[in-house]
Amino acid sequence: MKVASAVEELERRPRAVAIGTFDGVHLGHRRVLRAALDAGLTSTVVTFEPHPRTVLGNQVELLSTLGRRLELLAEAGIEEALVLRFSLEFAQVEPEEFAARVLEPIGTRVVVAGGKFRFGHARRGDLELLRGLGLDARAVPLAEGISSRRIRRLLRAGEVGQAASLLGRAVEVEGVVVSGDARGGTLGFPTANLAVSPELLIPAYGIYAGAARGRRAAVSIGTNPHYGGEERRIEAYLLDFAGDLYGQRLLVELWRRLRDERSFGTEAELVTQIARDVEATREARHPLELG
């Protein structure tokens, strides 16, 4: 997928355009993307960075980084993406001006969006306005019960299986592997410590079964209370893996929440419990396989 950061970087050609933030690229978003693909023109996404609501002063815990969002759009089959820098100045752009400055120069013929789609200054623009400007603006029926807001609620509760059913994929935690306390190695379970973007939503504290790098992974999210920790840590033990991951990007899937984090009477009890968690991880199934 070609990714552009300015209108001038995209060749003018007949396009079917989907506009939005597409945070998480969940099943509702995929309906809109499918409509763009089915239009038979160059399928294009126009998206924004940072999230418009954060620029307007609202706190938004994101489901995915921009990089991961673009990967998911490419996996969905989108041919080209235009990432526009969103700012307070950009928020003042009238919808007609947006169409003239962004949509018209790249050759947009079809625009697809959910029926409640709004854009431009004061959210004044909608599909009807675009039709008045001569575009073929197509409303895509909303996917009932599927929204980024609902997915965020599920993740805050640790309900990663239910969230996966709305995402159409496993819940993911993305970060860069950094050095940690190295306790896992001394206990026989060396972990990859993730540094995660502060804007990302992290699921509820607890121990999870999941996967990373094509291997099962037992994942701890929390403060490591057995050792009196206070800072949040995200640590993944990749089963049957030996190698150096420091400095590398790691995408960790969370399949099932196994238990709460807690402290133990002795370190031996902790090791015994970790071994149980590892066995549970070996037996875990991808949430979309559970039906």
Outline:
This protein is an alpha/beta fold. Helices cover 27% and strands 27% of the residues. The strands form two sheets. It has a six-stranded parallel beta sheet with strand order 1-4-3-2-5-6. A six-stranded antiparallel β-barrel has the order 7-8-11-10-9-12.
> Considering the protein shown, what is the CATH homologous superfamily of the largest domain?
HUPs
Q: How would a crystallographer describe the biggest sheet?
A: 6 strands, parallel
CATH architectural type of the largest domain? 3-Layer(aba) Sandwich
Name the structural class: alpha/beta
The helicity comes to 25-40%
- End-to-end separation: 31 Å
Number of domains: 2
- Under CATH at level 1, the class of the largest domain stands as Alpha Beta
In one word, what is the shape?
elongated
Radius of gyration over C-alpha positions, nearest whole angstrom = 22 Å
Beta-strand residue percentage: 25-35%
- Average pLDDT over all residues: 94
Strand order of the largest sheet: 1-4-3-2-5-6
Give the uncertain stretches in residue-range form: none
CATH topology of the largest domain: Rossmann fold
- Number of discrete helical segments: 9
Summarize the structure in words:
The protein has 291 residues and is α/β, with parallel strands linked by helices. It has nine helices and twelve strands. It has helices at 27-38, 52-55, 66-75, 95-103, 127-132, 148-156, 160-167, 183-187, 267-283; strands spanning 2-4, 15-19, 42-49, 80-85, 108-114, 136-140, 171-178, 192-195, 206-212, 215-222, 233-238, 249-259. It has a six-stranded parallel beta sheet with strand order 1-4-3-2-5-6. Strands 7-8-11-10-9-12 form a six-stranded antiparallel barrel. It is elongated, with a radius of gyration of 22 Å. The mean pLDDT is 94.
